[in-house]
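Appendix B.2, paired examples.
Example (i):
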Amino acid sequence: MKIFMLGASGRVGSQMTEFAQKAGMSVHALIRQPEKIPSYLLNHMTYTEGDVLQGKTVEEGMKGCGIVVSALSTDGGNTLSESMPIVIDAMKKEGISRIITIGTAGILQSRTEPHLLRYQSSESKRKLTRAAEDHHKAYTRLKESGLEWTIVCPTYLPDGDATGVYRVEKDLLPEDGNKISTGDTAHFAFSLIKKARFSQCRVGIAY
């Protein structure tokens, strides 16, 4: 299977790319700045240089791929929500139905106030909600798309290797979960490529 990767230079995306390469999967990435990709990853992938907000570039990079993986992070703006319709349109043109994205625990349902998302509720300790709002808009676009999407939603995300030992829960953050490493987030998201699960769901992940 050939993976179309967005966010390959990021903390989670680079580890997912490495997992895919070790598993013998082909990766084609959309990269804005190739110099930010470690050479040991770049030398074993193909890529299109460009921006995720450029529709024709996204379509060109996606040709021949069977699944889309997005580990794009928020950039202080609205890149996630603005790029999602572009990605969705390109997927439909190319006949790709499956997309796995990395989100945030803020867009999971609140346990204490189930009618709210976590970032909207008293569960959230963050004063700034811009990033969560951008993730929320992207989630809404996916929910309306008709595609087979899954959003992996980590809580506090320190750098760290994969252990393979963590908890996941559909639409909610596992109880008392307060962190998950970048490596284990990548490990779980990659497992969804190998075996399709949690279609059209958000999935909370934590230790």
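Example (ii):
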Amino acid sequence: MTWIKKGLVYSANKKYHWNQSHAQVPVVDMINDDVWRIYYSTRGLDNKSNTSYIEVDAKDPSIVLYEHDTPILELGSLGTFDDCGIMPSSIINVGDKKYLYYIGWTTRGSVPYHNSIGLAVSEDGGKTFSKKYQGPIITTTHQEPYFTGTCFVLKDADKFKAWYLSCIEWRKVNNRVEPLYHIKYAESKDGIQWERNGMVAIELQDANEGGLVSAAVTYKDGGYLMWYGYRKLADYRENKEQSYRIGYAESADGIHWIRKDDLAGIDIAADGWDSEMISYPYVVEHHDTRFLFYNGNGFGKTGFGYAIQNK
């Protein structure tokens, strides 16, 4: 399995006060055969994350047809789980509505931040959204006491399935407080109330690994395929040998997975926007072609691009 890189799609253009830096965690909604809408997170003058979208040509996603000029959701009121940032994570169709699962950011005193997963709903095809609740739908519990992050949701018959980031520890590494996290699995009957039993989908592979993020799952030929980001425990921000890469795993049931990172088929480039880091994958399939959208250097500071799978 290999991917053919097609280049950068979008980066923050500083056109608006809320869109000054980064274009992170691309979430793709295939509207029709002509237009795809890509939701993304960007940082404003206040360094808080907001979510907006662009629309691209489905036949050539490097062609941007439309750029939305406002965020689609307001930050939460003071003290709520998303008062410091909102990042998209997954989108699905539920009847005539669209469910957008998003990451809410707030700050803490003892650690740098806290994340939870919220839900926003659109009734106009994904152009505007309203929050389902002021609070999160997947957050800390007595069994998961730290935080939850990126979440990918797949509707399978009458069951919703989610693969989400779960923090398992904050640790002081080289005089800096760092989170460690893996990917867990949950199920739901309605996409809102989730049954979480602590099932780990993808585990950290050794003591040198520090984080697994942004599961992107597809179902093909009776099995599940997953792409995700993984990084080392220390020095992953500036050292490209330690930074994020895109991994790959396979599963017969979507619950128990086998890591096969050597088959991911994509790595950092020799130079350019994705030469130091690649992560936050989002995979879609269209007319028998598989597309991989992903972030490059600086956790998306250089923007996001895409690749197509080489058959």
